[in-house]
Amino acid sequence: MNGTDHGRQGHAVTMRDVAKAAGVSVATVSHVVNNKSGARIGEDARRRVQEAVVELGYRPNALAKTLSQGSSRFIGLVADAIATTPFAGQIIHGAQDEAWKHGYVLLVANTEGNPAVENDAVTMMLEHQVRGILYSTWYHREIVVPETLHQTDTVLVNCFADDSGLPAVVPDEQQGGRTATEELLAAGHRRIAFLNTTTPSPAQTGRLAGYRAALEAAGIAFDEHLVQLAEPAQEGGYDATAQVLACGATGVFCHNDRVAMGLYDGLREHGLRIPEDVAVVGFDNQDVIAAHLRPPLSTVALPHYELGAAGVRVLLGLEPPVDVLRIACPAIRRQSV
Amino acid sequence: MNGTDHGRQGHAVTMRDVAKAAGVSVATVSHVVNNKSGARIGEDARRRVQEAVVELGYRPNALAKTLSQGSSRFIGLVADAIATTPFAGQIIHGAQDEAWKHGYVLLVANTEGNPAVENDAVTMMLEHQVRGILYSTWYHREIVVPETLHQTDTVLVNCFADDSGLPAVVPDEQQGGRTATEELLAAGHRRIAFLNTTTPSPAQTGRLAGYRAALEAAGIAFDEHLVQLAEPAQEGGYDATAQVLACGATGVFCHNDRVAMGLYDGLREHGLRIPEDVAVVGFDNQDVIAAHLRPPLSTVALPHYELGAAGVRVLLGLEPPVDVLRIACPAIRRQSV
DNA sequence: ATGAAAGCGCTAACAA
DNA sequence: TTGTTAGCGCTTTCAT
């Protein structure tokens, strides 16, 4: 209804209105509103403007501003799976915090991996004059870059495309694998199994390399019988229980938390206790699981938040330029080791 | 560089460029680009324009367009927890699909529940002239509406504020509770426990009401010993195992999937099989858990996607106006019943 | 059927 | 210190 129509639909208050009310020109209003340094404004003109601003409930029109400035304050973020895991959400969160910090706002589009939607999303962003685009995936992988992405500055987040010439920000899988293994090593384990994923991926090779590196650094010979493969979900971990046990490991590094969850079930069926009989470490730090298993799972976190934040930093040129920026995966200690 | 500087940084192609190239006026270009009905354009002028468009790689400037039209094509979505659960992601997904369908794009802001951030987010959206705002929470609850939200059209998604006058779209908890119970009833169970949450909430009361309604409809007397309380997480379900067993139930409806997961553990420790000895149904349909427990969990889904979609529909006035729109929670059958 | 021109709300020289 | 003015890219009457 009516009354204080604070800016609502009914014709917005513009700078002109403020100028009129304050008895100054729009240029003056612009200057005080934006706190332009190098603009000498009389104390009292400034005051009058400020008063008029609150009085009228003036709110700058960001669109008009970017139009006249030429450069926009948008950063586009296209994600392939906002809806299915919390991972993309963390990337968004990190990207947004960092973007805001620099006066940018995020335009996000969820494509669920559909190339047509992806194209629409990029087009939409381009039409909105985004400063650049963050193209992200929910799990670390190599991608082929959609052609349209080359029409603006883009940085790949949690994915990469080797000779695309596009900068990428990804988790440091190798360091992560090494960290996970070291958790077990530190607890005194010498015979450590690695339940790796069956899926070829940077995670598969990187974590394995990290596992080997940790072993080597600890002076333990690599034993190929200790690395086994499992589908990267609960079922995989559960099904692998017998083999894991068969190789005589006292600690097992699981490719991810879900596999660890499955393994928990398997171990329990064998009457084994965690960590007394077998120590387990996961990967991902997927909260719903890791923090609430019995016992709570020690794991290594995927730095999604940081990935998003670093992504905008490289987009904005705030990060020393490199082809691929690797972000560390920190250990999260709970009670399974 | 051969002429294909497709848009990139270097001065974007504008309508003027297209007009010049096609030998027509910008007005004409505008008309053909927007396919304006009621604009008589000569067959061949139209063709020349279209050619020039692709030739130059013209891309409309959405910001300039909204500025001149007055109305923007943005819908703001503020969420309190994109980063922690996949729930918010599904709301975003639904909202975005529906928004796009109507030519709108989503401006999303993640506040992680921080009121200051929330305020900034709304301000930012207002400055971007959003058509309206969807204010969403990751779990269904009553909220107090941030003052700023009244400055534009807003609809509450997955939350409500009784006398705020704002329309709300929420899951139909009661129907959901009834559905869950009916799954057990249909499998022949007569003595059904309800492991409700300890947290006062629409879910707590709504699902309980649904449980009672289902029982009543089946001609089964309500027995208060059958409803027990548990913290809404794995630990809660696990800890409640003994009491649940003590009341002689053959089927149990858990307040959510996480509780069900904990109960699985407890039941297993008692040497009980699911569903042979005890049938279990959850709520939420949280994929990481429900689909991968052993046996996979039958549950009731929270309609997050639909919540988001319906939210934009009511915002756009495409839905018959009601104070609160309740969205159904469908049963998801797996193997725990 | 097509074009000229006046805005949309704001910024940025440049004057005054 | 402050005001004038010319755009930014596009839409939209209103002429022609």
Overview of this structure, please?
Two copies of one chain form a homodimer. Chain A has 337 residues and is of the alpha/beta class. Chain A has three domains: 15-68, Orthogonal Bundle (434 Repressor (Amino-terminal Domain)), CATH 1.10.260; 71-166, Rossmann fold (3-Layer(aba) Sandwich); 173-300, Response regulator (Rossmann fold, 3-Layer(aba) Sandwich), CATH 3.40.50.2300. Chain A has helices at residues 15-22, 26-33, 43-56, 62-69, 87-101, 115-127, 173-186, 202-217, 234-239, 241-246, 257-269, 287-290, 304-315, and strands at 74-79, 105-110, 133-142, 154-160, 168-171, 192-197, 227-230, 251-254, 279-281, 299-300, 324-327, 331-332. In chain A, the strands form three sheets. A six-stranded parallel sheet of chain A has the order 2-1-3-4-5-11, sandwiched between helices. In chain A, strands 7-6-8-9 form a four-stranded parallel sheet. In chain A, helix 11 (257-269) links the parallel strand 8 (251-254) and strand 9 (279-281). Chain A is elongated. In chain A, 52% of the residues are buried. Mean pLDDT of chain A is 94; it is low at 1-7. Chain A binds a DNA duplex (16 and 16 nucleotides) through residues 12, 14-16, 24-31, 34, 36, 39-42, 45, 60-61, 63-70.
Number of helices of chain A: 13
CATH class of the largest domain in chain A: Alpha Beta
Strand content of chain A: 15-25%
Indicate the low-confidence ranges of chain A by residue numbers. 1-7
Percentage of residues in helical conformation of chain A: 40-55%
Major β-sheet annotation of chain A = 6 strands, parallel
Mean pLDDT of chain A: 94
The CATH homologous superfamily of the largest domain in chain A is termed Response regulator
- Which fold name is given in CATH as the topology of the largest domain in chain A? Rossmann fold
What would you report as the Rg of chain A, rounded to the nearest angstrom?
A: 26 Å
Q: What is the 3D shape of chain A?
A: elongated
By oligomeric state, this entry counts as homodimer
At CATH's second level, what is the architecture of the largest domain in chain A?
A: 3-Layer(aba) Sandwich
Tell me the distance between the termini of chain A.
63 Å
Spatial arrangement of strands, main beta sheet of chain A:
2-1-3-4-5-11
